[in-house]
C-alpha cells in the first residue's frame, strides 16, 4: 500500500510538472508572436537584434515560434499540424501586412524562409521530446 501511495504521489508530481511546463511554453509562444509581429511590422526594427541577413532572421524567428508552440501543445498530431499551418499563415499575413508598412517589403522568399524555420523548430522539438521520453521511459 505504501508503494502505491508513493507511486501515485510521484505520478501526480510528474503530471503537475508537465502541465506547468506546457503552460510556460504557451506563454513563451505568445510572447514570441508579439515580438515577431512587432519586429516584422515596425518601419525600423532595432538593428541590435538583426543577424545581418534577412532570411536568417526569418528562419530563426519561426524556428523559435515552432519550437515553443510544439512543446506547448499536447501530443496530438492534429493540433501540432494545425499549429505549423497557423504559423505559416502568420508568416503569410505578416508578408501581406508589410505591403502597407513604409520601408518594408513583402517577398515570397521571406515566406519560404519562415517555412524552413517552422520545419526546423518542429524537428528540433521532436528530437527533444524523443530524447526526454527515452531518458524518462515514457
Question: How would you sum up this structure, described in words?
Answer:
Helices cover 79% and strands 0% of the residues. By secondary structure, it is an all-alpha fold. It has one domain. Helix 2 (54-72) packs antiparallel against helix 3 and helix 2 runs parallel beside helix 4. The two termini are 24 Å apart. The model has no long low-confidence stretch (mean pLDDT 86).
Brief synopsis:
The protein is 79% helix and 0% strand.
Output the number of helix runs. 4
Q: Ranges with pLDDT <50 over ≥5 residues?
A: none
The dominant shape is elongated
Order of helices and strands: HHHH
pLDDT averaged over residues: 86
| Span of the ends, CA to CA | 24 Å
The amount of beta strand, in percent, is under 5%
Number of DSSP strand runs: 0
* Class by SSE composition: mainly alpha
Topology:
Elements: H1 2-41, H2 54-72, H3 77-97, H4 108-136
Task: Write a concise keyword list for the protein shown above.
138 residues, mainly alpha, 4 helices
Amino acid at each position: 500500500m505504501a508503494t502505491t501511495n508513493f507511486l501515485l504521489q510521484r505520478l501526480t508530481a510528474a503530471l503537475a510538472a508537465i502541465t506547468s511546463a506546457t503552460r510556460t511554453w504557451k506563454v513563451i509562444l505568445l510572447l514570441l508572436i508579439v515580438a515577431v509581429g512587432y519586429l516584422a511590422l515596425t518601419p525600423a526594427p532595432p538593428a541590435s537584434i538583426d543577424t545581418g541577413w534577412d532570411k536568417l532572421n526569418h528562419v530563426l524567428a519561426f524556428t523559435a515560434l515552432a519550437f515553443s508552440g510544439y512543446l506547448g501543445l499536447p501530443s496530438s498530431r492534429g493540433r501540432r499540424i494545425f499549429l505549423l499551418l497557423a504559423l505559416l499563415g502568420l508568416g503569410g499575413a505578416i508578408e501581406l501586412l508589410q505591403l502597407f508598412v513604409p520601408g518594408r517589403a513583402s517577398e515570397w522568399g521571406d515566406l519560404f524562409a519562415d517555412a524552413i524555420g517552422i520545419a526546423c523548430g518542429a524537428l528540433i522539438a521532436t528530437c527533444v521530446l524523443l530524447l526526454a521520453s527515452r531518458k524518462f521511459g515514457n
